[in-house]
Amino acid sequence: MPSSGIPSARYSRQTRFAGLGQAGQQRLAQARVAIVGLGATGSTIAHALLRAGVGYLRLIDRDWVEEHNLPRQSLYTEADAAQLVPKVVAAKAHAQRINSACDIEALVLDLHAGTIDQALAGVDLIMDGSDSLETRLLINQWCVREGKPWIYSGVLGGHGMTANFRPKQACWRCVFTTSPEPGSMPTCETAGVIGPVVGVIGNLAATEALKLLSGQGQANPDLYMLDLWAWQFEQLPLPTPRPDCPVCGLRQFDLLEQDSAPTLSLCGRNAIQIRPQQPITMALAQLAAHLQQADLRVIQTDYLLRFAAETLQATVFPDGRVIISGTDDPALARGFYNRWINH
Ligand SMILES: [Zn+2]
């Protein structure tokens, strides 16, 4: 290993690449990146940055691995799905075997106004793998307020798009000036998605990350869009920052200031998430004992507890979050929560 601390043989193909070079590789080793959402896009991005030698990755996701993730989400296995492993825990375990020198932090966490400061503090770049409009709006406000760059990635069906949003340039809200009504747009849950488009968009975003982190190369100045199924590709130049943009122009950060709502519906999943107003530690072992006294079958792992009762299924996390599956009705879910979990 040379005095720089970069293993010379391991990254020789990258350091020989004139666009990156030894200096760029050294900057990657010093770089700190947060990836929000470890689904298909986030897995692709994490995999690329990990292999490339980025020094620190913070993986943020609230979900566990499910069988229907396996066609696209390249860091997970059937065993992860069978064992209900949180995505970031599974991703970290696999990633550490690929690159043991990468410092990886796994946060099983729901990103909202109450958690975003902790989740994104101290990184150089934020990568969006969230598949959520609500989360993107939140990331955009946080990054504008804090003066941090982020890279947007979105996929749906055979379509994908990506753009770089950097301080003092147009923000996401300058480009997407109107928000669709919640629930009015198709999602990957309702319209589906194919794996290759995720791989393309995730790797485009990862390439941009390598440029921004290494300080080398010409970063993408556009909103880049493609439809792989129709074989169509389009680049729209990002506008100049809009003085009347509510986020970067008027600096209104309403989403960061609102109290986190106690109940959140997961659109299209026939499930409701209930989360506590304040951070708590849920006593999973005691809850399991109570439920077993009621003759319920309980599955408990190091990271979650799951049981079924009445017509619903609940998945309970140590931070107090509960996902109640089998209903779209918040009142029904709240009643179930009060009967079985929060007596
Ligand atoms: Zn803006």
From TrEMBL:
CDD domains per record: ThiF_MoeB_HesA_family
GO cellular component terms attached to this protein's record: cytosol
Domain of life where this protein originates: Bacteria
Pfam families documented for this protein: ThiF
Residues in THIF-type NAD/FAD binding fold domain copies: 11-247
GO MF, one annotated term: sulfotransferase activity
InterPro entries: ThiF/MoeB/HesA (IPR045886), ThiF_NAD_FAD-bd (IPR000594), Ubiquitin-activating_enz (IPR035985)
Record family assignment: Belongs to the HesA/MoeB/ThiF family.
Protein name: UBA/THIF-type NAD/FAD binding protein
